[in-house]
Design brief:
The structure holds two protein chains of two kinds.
Chain A (H helix, E strand, L loop, with lengths): L3 H9 L1 H4 L12 H11 L3 H19 L4 H10 L3 H12 L4 H12 L2 H12 L6 H9 L3 H11 L4 H32 L2 H22 L3 H20 L4 H26 L1
Chain B lengths: L5 H25 L8 H23 L10 H17 L4 H19 L2
Helix pairs in contact in B: 3-4
Classes of the chains: A mainly alpha, B mainly alpha.
Chain lengths: 264, 113
Amino acid sequence: MRSAPEAGAAGSSGAEAFSPEEPPADESSASSWFWRGARASLSTPGFVLFGSFTGFGAMTHDFGWPVWAAALSTLLIWAAPGQLVLAGALASGAGIAASSLAVTISAVRLLPMVVAILPVLRTPETRFGTRLLAAHYVAVTAWFEGTRRTQAMPRTARMPYFLGLANGLVAGSTIATVAGHAAAANLPAPLSIGLLGLTPVYFLLSLERGAGGIGERVAIVLGLVMAPVVSQMSASFDLLLTGGIGGTAAFLVDRAIRRRQAAS
Amino acid sequence: MNQHDAWFMLLAVLAAFAANEVWRVLGAVLSARLDENSALFSWVKMVATALVAGLVAKLVLSPTGGFALAPLWLRLGSVGVGVAVYAAGRRSLALGVGAAEVVLIAGMVMLGR
């Protein structure tokens, strides 16, 4: 997530976003950039993502989801934290309203990611519909790899490349979700438990990987410590309470540290 | 449990899709006009971070279903090794996740379950 401030800075003034010193337009067509992007989805971050969706698929099998629901959630929601929150909330007995509320809270972080990546991807000719489409594919891995890889490309190549990359990641992740769901029932116990264990450790590490400062790391620790305690008190709203109280406390700690740094 | 009801699942996934997508749409609408480094955004990010971290703790400490077949010490141990290898290995997700998986699967094999 380190590249976010630069991307945001480039986007804050429209003139700079389309600076003249960028590489000259490439002769290759949009569809060749699309397929180049799609091929790039078969990379290490892509395979880590596919692995985590295999784990998610296995977990939904464990929770009694039909396989189509698991695949549909990857295709449509396309945000592993949101899908995980949905599965966790439904499993602890929350209804549709409460689980959607928890999902929407987990998804607010997508907004600044969209705000950061669109100025990198778009050209002055990019239509609003295309921007919406690109925004739909914003999720941690697609966002991080998309920003990182397209910044050095000619501007006309960026959007098709990103759409190819993101579609490759969605396709692979959907296949992985279905495979994980199917495998959970048929693998020897140590391997299926290994699949189920994939999700929590992947999330913990990717939260740390994406943390932009001390405040988000404090939020990770507070969330880990608070959730077991809070879930004893309120089973269906425990995630909302953990997020609200832990996140606000982390925010206050972060502000206090910044103020101290500014003062000294 | 009503989760097996196909209509309930379809509705739950579609509602979650809408609840998730609204922030992407807002981001596209507002993209040029918002400062992603504002205090409001950093607060929101921390609330979401604490929420997902809380979910991770619940999944490890009190899992439902098959993951509960692994004893608590093995679940905690595998995550601990994953974090340690991730920290030692230049914050590599693949290394950390891989190490946690090796510990978890080897542990289950040795326990003979």
